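tool=predict chain=A
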Amino acid sequence: MLVFVNSRSGPQQGVLLISQFRRLLNPIQVWDLANGGPEKILQSFSVFSRLQLLVCGGDGTVSWIISALEKMDLKRWPPIAILPLGTGNDLARIHGWGGGYNNESLLYILRQVSEAYVSLLDLWELDIVDKKGKRKAVKSFMNYLGVGVDAQAALQVHMLRESKPRLFFSRFFNKAWYAIAGGEEALKSSCANLSRQISLIADGKEITLPQDSQGIIFLNIDSYSGGVPLWSNGQRPRKWRSCQDGFLDVVSIRGTFHLGQIRVGLSNAQLLCQCREATVTLRKKVAVQIDGEPWRQNPSNLRIVRKRNRAVMLNRSVADSGGMEAEVPKLLAWANEKNIIDQNQYSLLMEEFSRRIEQRKWQRQEQRNIH
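tool=predict ok
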């Protein structure tokens, strides 16, 4: 196991975790990302075929590790577990690791990692192309991409954090600043004419935006801004969706007040479509965000496509499974190492196992919701 800790995440939690993990494991297995990027240490540990990663930080820290893995020519990606230290922790939530670390026993967490099962996570690319057809930037995202009001509120918080970082000292107060920014944006309604400022083409078809739309969000996972399911709770019957099915859910929101209603369960976002690729044309300067990273984007085309690679994630097993879900990936890895199955067969079987176990997990959740 290799543990990455972002000591800048959480209210001093990272610093404490480093010292605790170094007492439990060999100190060389624990890397503080404040001392340098993950590339060299990942390269050193990549020779271990059964390597597992535990990333202690927010979604941005997980994205950092995944980006480093993408640049490496690995036969098989090491699976990633998450100990959540960030603000939203949406990726940790959907993989069963919770919305934040609350000083649980690290021995207990390490045991849960050893019993966790593997699933796959689609990764997406955003190409920003100007009006002359010149590529200006390429960005990656794994959770969501927002255009309009949600990105505008996130941008206000980002600017405040950059100018006054001392105001962001706990997960609770971080979320409070987002709520304040959302309230200010509700009064301004700066994205009220969004349907006339942007257009959307999904899988080659133009999608008509609602006239009252103040934002569109592309969702890879069913968790937004700290565990909020934007649209799936409004579906009757609910459809199974997956973060490895190659589709994005595209939803429309009517403003930050509407987002607040969704957060407390009084409303739902409007599902516009589900697509494998999309192009958003910006006719005016509009706020955009990917996974909580906001900016103001000049008129341009935003092209969204799925990447070839998928991230390999570890999901916390349910309490009554005894970690049995983790045995199938281990068996497949053993068969691949013994040349019983080749790499292509291993990848296909892992993908199918991941799809089935994720669907089974969703079915269990639906049964709990019914009862």
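The mean pLDDT is 86. Residues 156 and 181 are 6 Å apart (CA to CA).
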